[in-house]
Amino acid sequence: MNDDSSIFWRNNEQASALFYDLLARAEQGAYDDDFIIQLAAYRKAGGDAAHADIFAAQYLLANGDAESAVICAERAFRLRAVEPALWAVLRRAYTATERYADALVMQAYTAKLLNRPLTLPADIPRSALTPEVLDRLSVAMGSPSFAPLALSRISCDEEHGLRASEGVFAGEYIPAPHASHPPYYVAAYTEQEQQGDKAWLLQTIQDAAGFAYNVGGGFTYELIRASRAPGHAEIHCTGETVLPIIGVSAFQNLHIKTSSVDQDTPLAPTTPNFFRLCEDTHLSSDHDFLVGAPIAIGHSPTRRPLVLNILADALSWEVVRTHFAEWMPNTARFFAQGTIFDQHFSASEYTYPSLSTIETGMYPHHNQIFNDTLAVLLNPAYIPLSERMRTCGYATANLMGEGSGIYNGATCGFDRLVIAPYHLFAYEAAERTIRYLEGLRDADHFIYLHTLDAHPWPYPRFQITASTQARLPLEERLSGARSNSPSPYLQSTKLSMAAYIQGIRDLDRALGTLFSYLEQHYTPDEYLVSLYSDHGVPIFSKHHYIVSPDMTHTAWMMRGAGVPAGITVSEMTSTVDIYPTLAHLLHFPVGEHVDGVLPQIFGGSGREIAFSNSLYPGRTYCLRARTREHTFHLESADALLPNGTVDLARAVTACYPRGEEGIAGREIDDPALRSFFYPRVRDFLTGIASNGEVFPPPKEV
């Protein structure tokens, strides 16, 4: 691609020709000196770096250098994690180097993508199918969005081989192949109720038909990083700590002995209990037990006592901003003493990629968390926000979340997560947070809350709030469009709009309780509160478009230490900017891979353009790149491939005034605008544009 501003996109025909020449040679098994010469030419012509490394790995593997093939293929995986041709070469290279577990995961990715049953390759021994490997395969064959559910729990027996069934990781560990911390143990969230009742319920229903499909009936799980103690544990206290402990057996006793205490206490299976320790402690029991990550008591001058991030799912600022004080008076009052970003845009149109974008500060095509059918692990070099905060010494707790960042690692820095698939209401989040702080006011916290009060869902599959049902006249109550469409494509009805507004009011009422508690118990320099959203809603759109302002003009506001008070800023910001902004205010480093920038209000360079795109396989690729005054629009003619790339040779592009984007007849044909947008958008599309280069499906399938 050159700097021509007359035509937006031209494919690199030289690189494309070399790609297909290399592909033909690979299909013929002609991995000779000429192959290397052509590969060097492909790289020199500006060919795709991931494609070049895939070809290099194929060449090395064919010539007996499996270890070097792994190096090249893993380098490609960091750039293009969802690529069946890459999985095929990685599977063979891992097998050749006896990394059987990793080879089987590549096999599972392929089977999952093609919706085929998983089988054991003939060149991998059955002895490789350990319980730990079967758990990894269960994650690879399942959904990345609903941890700890396992939509395809993999088992193996002599008669049937590998089999898949619905299941859940319960009373056991979540697979963690590359974790540097203890893995997550899946317990049942239990608060002020009979010990062990939730464990009994979970054990009773987890094998029922339809358990995973019906998301476990909305069961709430508690995931805690924990180590298994074989009947005893020595806890050495260098300071005061609070220690989570979980039992594994009914009517289990835990004996606690210190210099001043020598006493038993009851434990129940999968039920967390918390103990404040001030000195070295010996723990013992007749059964194993789980010891969670300790919560360090004490404040540090390098930290804030409370950093609170609230993801208000589907809070469209485009819809709410003109009604903010009316619909959200408590939130408006609280953030009137902070900074509101009036021109903030999400990078994506739905939760799965948006969550990882916020947590990593990276666009989905850079962190490779975009395909919601595959639980691809985040590159360990990309350190998410929660891990940064953990390293800073904060007690990290996700007190309300929906599980999207667990299997892929985007939320790996939390030591404790309270997870439910859909039952994420702000009134519970507020009370849960207050109770948590009541017990741990003397620690420094990073707390994350994810609420779904306002999120619209397909009707009638999802229940509308009772208050909305009861209040609406019958005609409006019955206006709900019957649909199984994904939420970004829902139709506008009086019922859906009324339910959304009610959800906004419910969210605000609960947040008002939480904000009042913070104001009563903390000074403004002791906390940093961020409220933001991952995407908007389509139900107020007269002319729906997947990256329209209703869908991507989202909320972001901050209050507390280091945040200017009483300011609404109009500079362009993006969801990738939340990460570097928190880094600036909380003094942790930002890696070079981070796409976000520090807004000008905090002394940063700010951004010229906010990019919003729909990177959804099987649908056309859509992009809107916005400045304060104008919008650049692009839509591909072809559907996005599962690997997140698309041929842009026939893409439609246009420039619009910001307030008239997408309206026919409002296009602006201005050489100055083209000269501004074209190079910047082309640079953004690196890694998305396929140049018309597509690998065929692996021969194994």
* Name given to the CATH architecture of the domain at 306-607: 3-Layer(aba) Sandwich
Which stretches are low in confidence, meaning pLDDT under 50 for 5 or more residues running? none
Number of helical regions: 21
Task: Report the sheet with the most strands, covering strand number, pairing sense and barrel closure.
Answer: 14 strands, mixed
Mean pLDDT over the residues: 96
CATH topology of the domain at 306-607: Alkaline Phosphatase, subunit A
Roughly how many Å is the radius of gyration? 26 Å
Structural class: alpha+beta
Helix content: 25-40%
The CATH class of the domain at 306-607 is Alpha Beta
Beta content:
15-25%
What's the CATH H-level superfamily name of the domain at 306-607? Alkaline Phosphatase, subunit A
Instruction: State the end-to-end CA separation.
Output: 34 Å
Form type: globular
Can you count the beta strands?
24
